[in-house]
Design goal:
The chain is of the alpha+beta class. The protein has three helices and six strands. It has a four-stranded antiparallel sheet, sandwiched between helices. The two termini are about 25 Å apart. The relative contact order is 0.13.
Length: about 180
């Protein structure tokens, strides 16, 4: 799916083992940041950068997702890390618990320097190329309609489209019952 789009070596990152369940790329809690470093120390600088960018915005969750990533546009600095205007990403996949189907989605991200319009335009173009490559697979069944979470009446929370559980708060990111990520409309 990344052949022809990637400008660096393509890496496959498997979901994390249970002992790294608290790993997070932010330094709010040093123990969680250390777990994240221990879990990803063997990855290339490009893959670590991609994980920091994409896990920070919840585009990838390595508790469930297998992530195939590479640098998709831009340059690296002298230490091998992508420049801030470089675009990283790839395909993230997980098994749907309800249907048993594999859900594959394209994800891209970038740092923040450079002309914003250029990064947005190039990122959108690359994301379109990723979707085209995913849909071109002989095993692709097509696009899936995703129901947006509905506001839970009386609680001010959100109803999980996966299991129907009403969360306690409208700012919830994950369903407290099934653990699936709640998408925003």
């Amino acid at each position: 799916m990344l052949v022809g789009i990637a400008t660096s070596e393509i890496e496959v990152i498997e979901p994390l083992p249970i002992e790294y369940s608290q790993a997070t790329p932010t330094i709010v809690r040093p123990s969680e940041a250390m777990q994240w470093l221990n879990a990803h120390h063997m990855l290339s600088p490009i893959a670590r950068h991609a994980l920091v960018v994409l896990e920070t915005v919840d585009a990838v969750d390595l508790a469930f997702d297998t992530f195939v990533c590479a640098m998709l546009d831009g340059e690296t600095d002298t230490s091998g890390y992508p420049e801030y205007n470089a675009i990283v990403g790839g395909a993230a996949a997980h098994w749907d618990e309800v249907t048993g189907d594999m859900i594959v989605r394209g994800v891209v991200g970038w740092g923040g320097r450079g002309v914003r319009g250029d990064s947005d335009r190039i990122g959108s173009k690359i994301l379109t190329s990723l979707l085209t490559n995913i849909m071109a697979s002989q095993y692709s069944l097509g696009l899936t309609a995703v129901e947006r979470p509905a506001v839970a009446h009386g609680q001010g929370g959100v109803v999980c489209p996966h299991c129907g559980f009403a969360s306690a708060h409208e700012r919830a990111f994950y369903c407290p019952k099934c653990g699936m990520r709640l998408t925003r409309g």
